[in-house]
Specification:
- The protein is 67% helix and 0% strand.
- With 492 residues, it is mostly helical.
- It has one domain: Amino acid/polyamine transporter I.
- Helix 6 runs antiparallel to helix 15 and helix 7 crosses helix 12.
- The chain is globular, with a radius of gyration of 23 Å.
- The C terminus is likely disordered.
- One of its GO terms (cellular component) is membrane.
- It comes from Megasphaera elsdenii CAG:570.
- InterPro entries: AA/rel_permease1.
- This is Amino acid permease-associated region.
- Keywords: Membrane, Transmembrane, Transmembrane helix, Transport.
Length: 492
């Protein structure tokens, strides 16, 4: 069994599977992918986490924390870009792990992504509900607490959170073109709001607020980087759209890298202006630091505009993260590691409708009935681990299959992947111990599911049993599996 859990699938096999059920519609280009990435990245990080990190970890050195997190993501993004161009298949890190490292590590990454996406979507939906209720209250419309709070908080259900997730699922099910169009509009609005904040806040920057610049020392800066790393989660969601891209070999690397660069510039600019407008300790009292800063200098109408921008920002995050979650589930199901019922493409909309519905149901229940403090306990450790595995996979595949055609090559291999591994490893180390323990528990649950279901139901397992007959010889490797391990397509 030890040998078989590291069985790989060839790139040819993955690509041939994308043509099942007619495949999905290829409608996205570089612009759409870049907007998709910005839609996933600019949201909670810029409207919430900037204040938390400045007040509790980095102080005005928040700028350096963002740069450190950006370096970690940048190195990982180059690794993602190489794989995305080489393996233009939905599933992101899960697919890349399957090609280079084998089924076991693919499952670990996929299980990891399921948790990250699902709880991130639920947490953002609860945050969206809070902003939505705040806007309604300012308009004189007060919803009963029973319909805006989870049972733990004294309500019955967080109905706005449930409803927005249903709307998001409806958009995603009806097609990637519709999803991308809605996302483009929302991203344009929130970028305009961020530009408004920078324009209004720049003239109110007081250099005295940047002193002391590093109040918590370098340990605080790195701890801040591990916290605001969440702000960058999303560029990897671009790669989940691989099967819906017109020219994946060129457009995917461009979309991944451009979205990360644009968002990094925005984060650095916003953090510099934010900490220059208001003393960093004052952000301890607010969960809406950008709006708070504008109110502090007298721009109340600007604060209201920021609230609208926050709603847009969180909506686009929900849209793209739900999109990514459904694609990961879809590919894992298509590979047999999860029930194949969810690996189905809708004949009319050409989208993984069943996976999208499953994501909607799970996240709606979580967001509707659990309080934000429980849902928000999910942190960055899973994504950091996924980045480490993908970076390692680049090095491994360069050794195993150096002649494989690569439309985009990660530069300076193995240096860049090793830097990504090192950066992500340091950020994992800086996370709280309870987060690390929680991750191990989730991983153990995933291993139980893999060995109880996925191992025996995967396409490779079925092919091996078909080749060897009803009584497989212990330790034997079927031709289909051997071909996959050697990087050639198996004849299923």
């Amino acid at each position: 069994m030890t040998k078989h859990i590291f069985r790989t699938k060839s790139i040819s096999e993955f690509i041939s599977e994308t043509k099942q059920d007619g495949g999905m519609n290829r409608v996205l280009g570089t612009f759409g992918l870049t907007m998709l990435g910005i839609g996933a990245i600019v949201g909670t990080g810029i409207f919430v986490l900037t204040g938390v990190a400045a007040a509790n970890y980095s102080g005005p050195a928040l700028i350096i924390s963002f740069i450190i997190a950006a370096l970690a993501c940048g190195c990982a993004a180059l690794c993602y870009a190489e794989f995305a161009a080489m393996v233009p298949v939905a599933g992101s890190a899960y697919t890349y792990g399957y090609v280079a490292l084998g089924e076991f590590w693919a499952w670990v990454i996929g299980w990891d992504l399921i948790l990250e996406y699902a709880f991130a979507v639920s947490a953002v939906a609860i945050g969206w509900s809070g902003y939505f209720n705040n806007i309604l209250t300012n308009l004189g419309i007060v919803l009963p607490k029973a319909l805006t709070l989870a049972p733990y908080d004294g309500g019955i259900v967080n109905l706005p959170a449930v409803l927005i997730l249903c709307v998001i699922a409806f958009i995603n099910i009806h097609g990637v073109r519709q999803s991308a169009t809605v996302n483009n509009i929302i991203v344009a609005i929130k970028l305009a709001v961020v530009a408004l904040f920078l324009a209004l806040g720049f003239s109110h920057v007081d250099a005295a607020n940047w002193v002391p610049f590093m109040p918590y020392g370098w340990s605080g800066v790195f701890a801040g980087a591990s916290i605001i790393f969440f702000a960058y989660i999303g560029f990897d969601a671009v790669s989940t759209a691989a099967e819906e891209v017109k020219n994946p070999q060129k457009d995917l690397p461009r979309g991944i890298i451009l979205s990360l660069i644009i968002c990094t510039v925005l984060y650095i600019a916003v953090s510099a202006v934010l900490t220059g407008m208001v003393p960093y300790l004052e952000f301890k009292t607010t969960a809406a630091p950008v709006a708070f800063a504008l109110q502090a200098v007298g721009y109340h109408w600007g604060a209201a505009a920021i609230s609208v921008g926050a709603i847009c920002g969180l909506t686009s995050v929900l849209l793209v993260m739900s999109f990514g979650q459904s694609r990961v589930l879809f590919v894992m199901s298509r590979d047999g590691l999860l029930p194949k019922f969810f690996g189905h493409v809708h004949p009319k909309y050409k989208t993984p409708a069943r996976s999208s519905l499953l994501v909607c149901v799970v996240t709606a229940i979580t967001a509707g009935f659990l309080p934000i403090n429980i849902v928000a306990e999910m942190t960055n450790i899973g994504t950091l681990c996924a980045f480490i595995i993908v970076s390692a996979a680049v090095i491994v595949l360069r050794k195993k299959n150096p002649n494989q055609e690569r439309a985009f090559k990660c530069p300076l291999v193995p240096l860049v992947p090793l830097l990504a591994i090192a950066f992500c490893g340091v950020l994992i180390y800086m996370l709280p111990l309870v987060t690390q323990i929680r991750f191990v528990v989730w991983l153990l649950l995933g291993l139980a599911i893999y060995f109880g279901y996925g191992y025996n139901h995967s396409i490779i397992s079925q092919a091996r049993r078909g080749q060897l007959g009803a009584a497989p010889v212990p330790g034997a490797v079927a031709p289909a599996e051997q071909a996959a391990q050697e990087g050639h397509p198996a004849n299923h």
